Amino acid sequence: MITLRPVEATDLDEFFSHQLDPSANHMAAFGAKNPSDRGVFDNHWQDILNDRRITVRTILSDGHVVGSILAYHDGEAPEISYWIDRSRWGQGITTAAVGQFLNEVTERPIRARAVADNASSIRILERWGFQQVGETQGFAPARGAVVRELILELP
């Protein structure tokens, strides 16, 4: 069973362990340049948790912390972002979490971004009705390279 709840302080240790996975960092691309720097991680999460414009939830699978999902305003529409423990990829957890989150965060349009080679994330977003509305390129610290990023929108 997949559920969402507000982030608790103890969740951050689990989130930190998720970001240490090299494959997950590669797919996310825009994570920290040095994912093992706990100080940078803690500062980043304090900024998220202290910003009232950000809606953030912990994703639970059968009561276990498996990731996070959030929506923030950075332009004309809110944008969602999520991170799931790589050991849980391919189990439908992200798909279910995105659906639940979209029921909670109802402002539309809402956007998401995915590196163009992250087919799984793009497929999840498209399942919920997101459509590509643009693309951009940006430097991805986790890859140390410029990547193509798709911009998707749910009208």
Automatic annotation (TrEMBL):
Pfam family, one: Acetyltransf_3
Record-level Gene Ontology MF annotations: acyltransferase activity, transferring groups other than amino-acyl groups
InterPro entries: Acyl_CoA_acyltransferase (IPR016181), GNAT_dom (IPR000182)
Source domain of life: Bacteria
Keywords: Transferase
PANTHER family: ACETYLTRANSFERASE-RELATED, N-ACETYLTRANSFERASE DOMAIN-CONTAINING PROTEIN
Name of protein: N-acetyltransferase
Organism name: Arthrobacter cheniae
Lineage start: Bacteria, Bacillati, Actinomycetota, Actinomycetes, Micrococcales
